[in-house]
Every structure is written in C-alpha cells, then in structure tokens.
Amino acid sequence: MCQSKAYLVSNGEERLLADEVSNVAVSGSSITLQPLFGEPIFLNGRIREIDLMSHRIVLEAEPAPGAKDARSSAVR
Question: What is the pTM assigned to this prediction?
C-alpha cells in the first residue's frame, strides 16, 4: 500500500502523529491528515518534508493564536 506515516516536529523533537495517512489537505496554515482508518487529524502548521520513497510526512507545528505551547495547541 502507499500510505505514509506523519511525524510532528515541535521544539526540535519528532514524534509519530499518524500511521497509514492516505490524504493530506492544506489550506493556508491548516493541515488535515486523513488516516486510512480513523478520524481526520487537524493541525495548524506547515509541511517540512514529504519523502514519497520512504512514505514519510514531516510537519512542523505552529502555535494557535495566544497559545504558549505548539504541541498542545496545534493538533485538534
């Protein structure tokens, strides 16, 4: 299959955000990840890298307005 793993980089650390992502939609700074199974994941940020050969998506969190910590506020 051709799904990818999505990773979130925050404060210089990378963590797995979602397995088997089948679709990524971007609108401004809003990113929606749709895993093959399960609910969509919404976050504010930007795409840092997509490696199609390694099935890897790396995202960078962007803090929500007024938030102090991108890790807790960027992912909804």
Answer: 0.79
Residue 64: pLDDT over 50: yes
74 class by beta-carbon count within 10 Å (0-12 exposed, 13-18 middle, 19+ buried): buried
Task: Kindly state whether residue 76 falls inside one of the protein's structural domains.
Answer: no
DSSP readout, 4-54? EEEEEEETTEEEEEEEEEEEEEEETTEEEEEESSS--EEEEEEEEEEETTT
Q: Is residue 73 part of a domain?
A: no
**Residues in CB range of 71: below 8 A, 6 or more apart:** 8, 10, 11, 61
**Phi, psi for 66 (deg, rounded to 5):** 80, -5
Domain hosting residue 59, numbered range: 4-64
